[in-house]
Amino acid sequence: MVDVKLPFDKQKIVEITKEHPTPFHIYDEKGLRENARRFKEAFSILPGFKEYFAVKACPNPFLLKILKEEGFGTDCSSLPELMLSEKVGIVGEDIMMSSNDTPAEEFVKCKELGGIINLDDISHIDFLEKAAGLPEMICFRYNPGPAKKGNDIIGDPKEAKYGFTKEQMIEGYKILKEKGVKRFGMHTMMVSNELEVRGLVETARLMFELALEVKEKAGIEVEFINLGGGIGTPQMPDQPHTMPYEDIARDMKKVYEIVFAGEMQPKVYLECGRTITGPFGWLITKVRHLKKTYKDYVGTDACMANLMRPALYGAYHHLVVLGKENDDLSHKYDVTGSLCENNDKFAIDRMFPEIEVGDLLVIYNAGAHGHAMGFNYNGKLRSAEILLREDGSVLQIRRAETVDDYFATLDFDKLGEFNGQEK
Ligand SMILES: Cc1ncc(COP(=O)(O)O)c(C=O)c1O
Fold first, then answer.
1. How remote is the CA of residue 240 from the centroid of ligand 1, in Å?
2. Please, are residues 190 and 144 in contact by the beta-carbon 8 Å criterion?
3. Which CATH number fits domain 29-277: 3.40.50.300, 2.40.128.20, 3.20.20.10, 1.10.10.60?
4. Is the pTM of this model over 0.90?
């Protein structure tokens, strides 16, 4: 099991900050590769296993290139993500595209790249045919509705906008067959940040049983079943930072053998994001101000634009004060960002050692759905991304945004003529 200890110490971060000011995300190449290898090896007991890394979790081409080297494909959900995949050389059936409310140009681009198109709705069969023509292989995304309970993050499947009903799946495959499509896939994404092995295995069971039902009722055999992403990352420092992949894979294989009993042998795919990069990325931020009112506040130079999960979902992200890791947890603080939203907090009523202005904080598990969820509200600029290489060197893999980037879509020259005002 890969246990994530910080791959850097205070001295290393202080050295990095001389060239790369805080805040920034830092990723650990060694941990990322070891985790990717362990993931791949564990799930390779399933027939034809392949992982399509969910690009949305961490859309950085350098990290995608590392994952390509480890044998992963990409799960893309937009035109820019397809283009990113192409830029790192992940093309053909190493791409799966699962988007919803899909514009025509995404279908066209995915088909051009030879990627596997995963349709979100039965009406998209016609839409795709008109926009790009039907490819040789098509996949459908399943929404189990009342057949499966969701969780707090992904919500109740009945309320989810994604995917086909079971009846639509069966009908859809019949339509494709009539239209001459020869190869079929089946996909779902039923859980998010799931920390129970059973929850993940039950998703597999539901899909395996559906594949048999589709075979019986639509007369087609799916070539693969993509079980989506959603493998969670335990958050507490005393827990292993990744799930027991070996146990999940072993239990999925058992269910596979029982359900299919030799009748079908579809390949099994996953498209995890969080568990692949999440625990191997950290947000580094510096304490800018200390404030005492009704509570004690630690104001940092990062904010929810750098890591939105605590504000959005109330997600716990472990946080340490570099150089004070072993000090007594003697002070209770809210650790905040500078955005004008009161939920812009990385920690609430949490115990820390006494914090001083200038202290460097490390926010854990920021390698997935972290930088990727960044936004510019309140004039906040996206921060840099740094890769800690296996030899201990560092490489900036995305620069921080500047004010010029923020203004790049505005034309101030036109403002001078606007409403007759002088420049
Ligand atoms: C369709 C789809 N696949 C995969 C993922 C990746 O999920 P996770 O990062 O939780 O593994 C997501 C996340 O939103 C998704 O929407």
1. 21
2. yes
3. 3.20.20.10
4. yes
